[in-house]
Write a structure and sequence with these properties.
single chain; 141 residues; alpha+beta; seven-stranded antiparallel beta sheet; 4 helices
Amino acid sequence: MSYVASASRTLRVPASVAFDRLADHDSWSDWMPRSFRPVGRRLGRLAPGATFRVRILGAPFAARCRVTVVRPHEEITWCGGVRGLVYAEHHFFFDAAGDAVTVRSEETWTGPVASLLRFGIQPGAAKVGGETLDGLARAVA
């Protein structure tokens, strides 16, 4: 069974501007929310196979994420967790409409631990996704 948390924001900038800011890992410490703070080395521009660490919702440990998809101006996806236990895939989709873009954050959780923790994971993931999009909106304004 899987669980999904999603959020979206329409930004008054071209898709390329929003995409490039999210793809720029080095800038994250300037605008990412407290609920999703980068930890450790800077990566420059995200690329498939790159790994990074983040502290999520103030957890005492940093989670390790691996970038799986980077399609310029369309999608960035990363994942983390332990397959077969609790595993998450976080997608950012960029839907361009003229000089604006709707950015959709969608996180899917799978595994037996996700089932047990569903009522904590879904609201937390929705909060982090929404706050990340709010930070992105401020970063490109």
